[in-house]
Amino acid sequence: MTTKRHEEVGLTDAQVLDMYYYMLLARKVDERQWLLNRAGKVPFVISCQGQEAAQVGAAFAMETERDYLCPYYRDLGLVLVFGQTARDCMLSAFAKAEDPNSGGRQMPGHFGGKKYNILTGSSPVTTQVPHAVGMALAGRMQKKDFVVYTSFGEGSSNQGDFHEGANFAGVHKLPVIFFCENNKYAISVPINKQLACESVADRAIGYGFPGVSVDGNDPIEVYRVTKEAVERARSGAGPTLIEAVMYRLVPHSSDDDDRTYRTREEVEEAKKKDPLIQFATYLKEVGLLDENTEADMLARVQLEVDEATEYAENAPYPSPESTLTHVYGE
Ligand SMILES: Cc1ncc(C[n+]2csc(CCOP(=O)(O)OP(=O)(O)O)c2C)c(N)n1
Ligand SMILES: [Mg+2]
User: Fold this and answer.
1) Domain extents for the chain?
2) Long-range CB contacts for residues 23-26, cutoff 8 Å, separation at least 24
3) Which of 84, 207, 253, 270 makes an SS bond possible with 88, Cβ 3.0 to 4.6 Å?
């Protein structure tokens, strides 16, 4: 029998099964949204497919009632662990009034909500990074003991916002985790045309804190390094940059055609390392999952996705009279 790597990092059997459930839920919500988009029912999808292991692994290393997220648009797996539901995600996709992120005002993937400890984000990439740093500074000034986690793509790590935020957090040793989801593309631009350095993690040295590169297809490894970063942050030792290396399995968004810039062979090769397949294999090897329990979990997830879709499709749109709410002072 394979060694239980999850026990070595302090995860229980129940926790790793839960991790797999969240990864599966994220994937199935995402897949359904593509179907709905192609059926003309939802306007836009931006996917987490291929990035679920990193998102869920990182989320499990934090305390959902205590820590804060400044996530980016692909973080479906992350926000599900922080309490958003399949129904919430579908309400957002259908732009319905009850969407917890923005009441149907923002594009899908703009996660936010006070009750989930998730700060509302903006569409310009990487603006969430200085927000996270500011939140961490506020927490320190108020003597609160929370960690702020912010995530972004590797392309976005070229934006000034990342460098300014990282520098300030490094100088002041703020409790921030900079989490880069390196999926090898920024829309059509491949990684070798984005960065001249070996890895995104290398950038941390310039700001005086550790940078770690980790296999983003392995939720246990991601959990391990994120847990260390959380402990560092809580102890007052300052930020950590984590680079989770993975692959975006689908086009950039529902409006993109990735056949114009990457070969099908490359995508098929990456699918062999699909984090869901790899993690299910691990769970079977350590005797935690078998065909029956896997089928049960899939059925439970499908039911959740079906119910969420039906509810959101039938839910009311925001009223026209509310168009300017939160836009101008009342
Ligand atoms: C400041 C800014 N520039 C450009 C865009 C358009 N844009 C949206 S996503 C994206 C690619 C980002 O790539 P990456 O950071 O690698 O994240 P990924 O989508 O690959 O997860 C771009 C250029 C934007 N939203 N904001
Ligand atoms: Mg990218």
Assistant:
1) 5-285+303-311
2) 23/52, 23/53, 23/56, 23/77, 23/219, 23/275, 23/276, 23/279, 24/276, 24/297, 24/298, 24/301, 25/80, 25/86, 25/301, 25/304, 25/305, 26/52, 26/55, 26/56, 26/76, 26/77, 26/80
3) 84
Cα 102 from chain centre: 18
pLDDT tens digit string along 81-126? 999 999 999 999 999 999 999 999 999 999 999 999 999 999 999 9
Residue tagged active-site, from 105, 163, 261, 311? 261
Which residues line ligand 1 at a C-beta cut-off of 6 Å?
74, 123-125, 152-156, 181, 183, 185-187, 248, 252
What's residue 2's pLDDT? Answer: 81
Cα–Cα distance for residue pair 66/310, rounded to 1 Å: 33
What is the pLDDT, as a whole number, of residue 330?
A: 77
Report the CATH number of the 5-285+303-311 domain. Answer: 3.40.50.970
User: pLDDT at position 161, please?
Assistant: 98
Dist CA 162 CA 134 (whole Å): 13
Q: Is 110 a catalytic residue?
A: no
C-alpha 23/C-alpha 305 separation (Å) is 13
pLDDT at 1: 64
Mean pLDDT, the chain, whole residue set: 97
For 116-170, the pLDDT digits (tens) are 999 999 999 999 999 999 999 999 999 999 999 999 999 999 999 999 999 999 9
Instruction: State yes or no: pLDDT of 299 exceeds 70.
Output: yes
Give, for ligand 1, the residue of 49, 107, 125, 253 to mutate: max count of ligand atoms closer than 8 Å to Cβ.
125
